[in-house]
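## retry 2 of 3
previous attempt timed out at serialization; input unchanged, resubmitting
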Amino acid sequence: MKIKSELSKIIETALTTANINADEIVISDATKPEFGDYQYNGVMKLAKILKQNPRQIAMNVVEHIDITGMVAKVEVAGPGFINIWLNDNWLATQTTAILEDSRVGVGKVEKPQRVVVDYSGPNMAKQMHVGHLRSSIIGDTLATLLEFLGDEVIRQNHIGDWGTQFGMLIAHLEELGTDGNTQELKDLEVFYKNAKVRFDESEEFANKARDYVVKIQSGDAHCLKLWQSFIDASLGHCEEVYEQLNVNLKKEDVRAESFYNDQLPQVIETLKEKGISTNSNGAECVFLGDDETPIIVQKSDGGFLYATTDLAALNFRDKELKADRICYVVDARQAQHFKQVFTIAKQAGMVKEEVALEHIGFGTMMDKGGKPFKTRDGGTVKLVDLLNEAVVRAKETIKEREAHSDEALDALAKSIGIGAVKYADLSISRESNYIFNLEKMISFEGNTSLYMQYAYARIQSILRKHNAEVSGEIIVGDAIEHRLALMLLKFEDTLSKSAKEATPHTITSYLYDLVTVFMKFYELNPILRDDVDEATKMSRLQLATLTGNVIKKGLEILGIDVVDKI
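## retry succeeded, writing output
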């Protein structure tokens, strides 16, 4: 239900009736229940334009607001704010109408877009580490959200599979006398370190590695076979992590650097033809504005750089994938790089002007000391190790609460542990750094995944205890039921805001507020007590059911499982 859009129409009608013109009408959530459900704060701007008293304008508008349907009451507050309360019967009718709706009242966008979401981007030379967590889950949440709202989403996993290091790696594979399908690649970290040792200590090996880079790029069949076996093994490790994380990235979503290799010379030609690049000391460079530091797109030795590949990718996503919106879910420290690449792509006509290019930047995961997350010896933490630890901690947290079989306990621990890590990350404003703290993440209190899962499980417990059909309409009988019904109907506005701004924490904040209101409702309004009349009981059961459905859908968009028992 797009409540804010409906209220905007009501305010617009009132303004028109009052002979007042307004360019844009913005409806805001009220900050406190006593201030209403929503507020219209546009009167202050109108007062400046009309050169009239803002409170007098607000009173004039209020006189023309229709309070016979959706709106129950309006009042002027302060210098000219308009507080709006929604009608209990309207809330009851709207919530009842979505009880059987699998989309819990959320419609699809009127004008679907084709959106490319570029995320995860693991290195093929190493196993996935904690640095890949945020890109993977923020990107996947955004992709899932946009799909749910009706956009056509093309997931792209841009992996680095081209360059000097691969000559070193396949040279080491050949030296071991293996085709890459054996145990040598089971631990990519160890394999990479051993290859690097050989590269550093043996000039002969180093020269062979450099020769192999040339052979890979020129299409040598033997080298390409070894290279492909290494890429397949690396992607196999990634897929295991994606499965554990419940991230929806498949092999067909991979679009590696090597895919764009043949297109790089054309990128340079286009930049030259458009007069965008210049030759500086043998290198092809682009100077933007007053910035004296150029963006190098081709080195003096003829080699290409990341910027060149990114331009080729943008050109492909515009011309071949026909994208309307292209989102790069990449570390915030790459902001300048993407700003430059986006500017060049638009100037060169590689991307149409109307195509939205967005860098969805994010901060860093920190340890308890406020430093980037590392192992005790300063190494990079493997993502799979972090996730396994979360599952172990989750199992310790829940094993004493209710009797479960070993198999059920393992499944429950995985849902809670993985959900805890994902939710904690997504609940932070993505541009912020945050402290990784498993104890805080796997807690029954506060804005945690476990708190959401526990609320859902409690609702299922109520329904099991009732053990009969739930039917009838929702009745909004008091202030807490009013707040709960209102929260349930805010879901669509929440998802729309999150999709537009690429902010998963908008969803987690909503879920926390919803569950908090539900817990208060559960405390104040008995559901199954003997002295509750049948109509009220059914209404409250329906409210509980709908709350469970919204929690489930919200967590599903975040890629987190619900659980029936904890």
